Amino acid sequence: MKIPLRRAGGEGGRVPLARQIQSHLERLIRQGLLAPGVKLPASRELARDVGVNRTTVAAAYEELIAAGWARAHVGQGTFVAERVPASVEPAPAAVPRLDWSELLSRRAQVALADRHRRRSYSQPARTAPGTISFAGGMPDSALFPTDAFRRVLNRVIREEGRELLQYYPPTGYPPLRRYLAAYLLRFGVEAHPAEILIVNGSQQGFDLVARTLLDPGDLVAIEQPSYPRAMQVFRSFGAELLPVPMTASGLSLFHLERLLERQAPKFLYCQPSAHNPTGLTMSLAVRQRLLELAVRHRLPIVEDGFDGTLFYGERPPGPLKAMDPAGLVVYIGTFSKILFPGLRLGWLVAPPALIERLEMAKQLADIHTSPLLQAAVYHFCERRLLERHQARALREYGRRRSALLEALARLMPPGVTWTETEGGFSLLLTLPEGLETGALLPRAQARGVTFTPGEAFFSDGGGERSLRLSFSAVALPQIEEGMKRLAEAIRELGRHPAHPAREPEMAVPIV
Ligand SMILES: Cc1ncc(COP(=O)(O)O)c(C=O)c1O
Which residues approach ligand 1 with their CB closer than 6 A? Predict the structure, then answer.
């Protein structure tokens, strides 16, 4: 650690060195640069770094301890106190600080404005204790096969650690790409391993596609409602989103056709199976006609197949990518829902001419995805552990989905409607005419239940009466209680529909 000291003879040199060290460390602690619980450098080390006697540092540490800024642990060293004394106002900076917000690129400004407008929060919800949260569209970590994954990871480090901890080609771990090529055949997608690019989750897939295909002012057709994080990426590259309404059997071809007669979007982004937020599946007939339309208009399709294997009841038709002789479809897949989102592991399937460009973009962005994690996931899949986990998780999610649909049917006041989710983790509920989700959220939270307001999923500012309920991470016994609380909040809102003055208290994550 560097501490600038004023020595005797120089300006300010009359302040003892121990005192100078003490006040320097005190400032770092006060400003949170040395966080509670962090170990301070050993006195010998600090004495050497700043060029003073060790007893001088020891004296500074003693003063810090006496004033409550630090504590000593015999035999372990000196640590920043867990609770530091009340802080004093910091002195105004001598030089005005640079205002970075003035320097933001146009892209960053769009992303920021979008974030404020959509009230999308990247941090997990700070839910009050006891709140039943239907807000996060994420898998239940209580179901994670962590021990099995740890064993595979240990083996991979032991056996392939040297290569996997080195720099790696951007395309990905070859055995995983070969595995994915075989895996995709199960759904009818014929992709050569060379047409598969490993990415850091679907999110990076959206980013690479946008980076490679979009110019500011380009148009992107998108289902309405749709996945907010994909919309944000396309917008941040300057694209204008053209919403296409949805029906119970997928996006409305009638509306898409009208749109294509007037405008030429760069591509269509859609989620044909396990659509987030509705949970609906695009029917086979709609898929076929969509592809015919796409071929006729030379419309590329970015297919988000993130949850295609998470279905309840009838198996969804194969991905659009499986019916794509013209090479119009870019398919994006992920391990986030079927395994662990924290791995940040997904894949892109695209025709050779495009995949090469996407690889270049990937290399510029982050060189490659962690080979260690790719190898661990490959071995996990090879040993059929993914299949075993998926079957178990799907049974549990199926039970939660049925419990939610059953509770909704029994408890919701008249006029409330919802989508009969067929796949994925969520459904979209719509309030009766005259009631708004923005007014419902604080009432629901006051009763101990929360959800994601629907506005975030609508690209044109609609969705005021809708909300998304995710059932995947809510334990079975809590689902009915959660719906009772929500139904009460809706009834109360029906009696007093005015928008309350206060904003919802809790941040709601959008996943
Ligand atoms: C529609 C959709 N696509 C993709 C994802 C997964 O994203 P990622 O692979 O970046 O975790 C999600 C996650 O919620 C999603 O809802």
Answer: 137, 201-203, 227, 271, 276, 304, 306, 334, 336, 341, 346, 511
